[in-house]
Design brief:
Blueprint (H helix, E strand, L loop, with lengths): L10 H8 L3 H19 L3 H7 L9 H14 L3 H8 L3 H21 L11 H10 L10 E2 L6 H7 L8 E2 L2
Antiparallel strand pairs: 1-2
Length: 166
């Protein structure tokens, strides 16, 4: 793997590359290792020992770093593959595995954010336990409707941009 977490030298680099301090990365890495073994029945090293092909991602720490770096930087998979020295498709597969493991680990320690609610009742029940929420809303541009009533639904008050309110 071209870029590795072992190359990070100070807290500033840790936070800029992963969004976490080194201590928090190590804590999360231990949870990640345990969850990887729970989900796949063996460690990354054991998987590599039986694999006929060599891998650039040798440890769970490498896999977690790959995921956190990609989430923090927002680069395309082609560029991230270049940075990590792997093909885009391989990067994509490994990122999906890492996301599955991380999500499962965060659910187990009860810190995974809620992304969807099945009903209003479920949302209200969640609010009882968590009085503060963060909503990450995004406006999307849409073609302005010709119907006057439909235009009111889409109007945001911004000049020359007609976003879809979500």
């Amino acid at each position: 793997m071209k870029t590795r977490h072992t190359e990070l030298r100070n807290e500033r680099q840790w936070k800029s590359a992963t969004g976490l301090s080194q201590a928090k990365f190590e804590y999360l890495s231990n949870l990640f290792k345990q969850e990887y073994k729970n989900l796949f029945g063996r460690s990354k090293e054991e998987n590599l020992a039986e694999s006929p092909k060599p891998s650039q991602i040798e440890t769970e720490e490498d896999l977690l770093f790959l995921l956190l770096f990609s989430l923090k930087t927002g680069m395309t998979e082609d560029v991230l593959g270049l940075i990590f020295g792997i093909e885009r498709s391989t990067f994509s597969k490994n990122r999906a595995i890492a996301l599955r493991v991380l999500s499962s680990a965060l659910l187990k320690i009860n810190v995974m954010p809620m992304r969807e609610f099945a009903s209003i009742e479920e949302f209200e029940k969640h609010l009882e336990a968590h009085p503060e929420i963060i909503i990450d809303g995004t406006e999307h541009r849409v073609q302005r409707p010709e119907n006057q009533e439909a235009q009111k639904e889409c109007y945001s008050g911004k000049k020359n941009v007609i976003p879809l309110k979500r």
